[in-house]
Amino acid sequence: MMAGLGDRSVIPFQAYTGDDPYLFVSFSHADKGEVYPELLRLHNKGYRIWYDEGITPGKDWMEVIPHAIEKSSFFILFTSPNIIGSKYISREITYAIEIDKPFLAIFLEETTLPSKLKFQINVYQHLFKYELSLVEYNQKLMEVLPEATLDENIAKKPDIDPFAVLFDVALEVFDSGDHATAIMMFQRIVKLDPSNINAWINLSIAYSEQKWHQEAIEAARKAVELDQENPRAWMALGIAYFNKERSNVEAINAFRKALSFNSLRISERKEAWRKIGYACKRDGNWDDSIDAYKHAIKCDPDDGSSWLYLSRALEMIGRKQEAMAAYRKGVDLGW
What we know:
There is one protein chain. By secondary structure, the chain is of the alpha/beta class. The protein has three domains: 5-155, Toll/interleukin-1 receptor homology (TIR) domain (Rossmann fold); 161-264, Alpha Horseshoe (Serine Threonine Protein Phosphatase 5, Tetratricopeptide repeat), CATH 1.25.40; 268-335, Alpha Horseshoe (Serine Threonine Protein Phosphatase 5, Tetratricopeptide repeat), CATH 1.25.40. 59% of the residues lie in helices and 6% in strands. Helix 4 links the parallel strand 4 and strand 5. It is elongated, with a radius of gyration of 25 Å.
């Protein structure tokens, strides 16, 4: 992101490395947006979990993985079409079966397995998560997982808010650049908690980063519906419209609504004014564009790029001396 989760820059928690019983988890990294929330939830319940983020840099994968499977008390395979063809997951499955490790396959979605893989895991327990309600899934999963892998000290602590933990990880994922995975995480949060306005806001922003403009607009609208007095919801809606072609008027209106709230942070006010300036420029409204850039400069007089934007707008309507002065100011500020 653009070191992504697959690049190990962001992980939900450190994999277990002790000598007590633990769960070994195998999955495709293409499914991390679905799997990481599950691992977080189990981790917060007190389960000891090893997954391949537990490989210390420099260690030999062919040595670490078999050793981790051997020491584990239970093998979980998160199953989806993404595991098909993965030689690494195939080796993990084969080895777990060879040493007769207790085994559970959790199907994240309907998956047609190749004959060999189907033959390997068909005799073991299965959970079809996509067919079950969250309550049913949790109940069945808790019945299967060995109690020995549960850390009683952690389990006795007050419950950790799973939404808060997942939200924090989703933000880290987003900040590191993996917007596609962040989208999957925020989608999961709003599915489980449709009133989570911050998740809707960040889902909209993540959609915007992926250029999924209509989805971004719809998520931001949902945030605004939940709280019309939330300036960040209006900012998200403004950004979503701003990134969609021919939506300048809607973008400007949303940004102006955000600016009407005193609680909007100064950095966000500057961003809103600059985007208003650019949206006005796209519509050829140069006077309004100049006015907006001047407001952005008031928010942060030392931002050289705002001065350069102002310079270009002034130049377009023939105010060349003012344009040159603004340009020099921007250059002096190190733009």
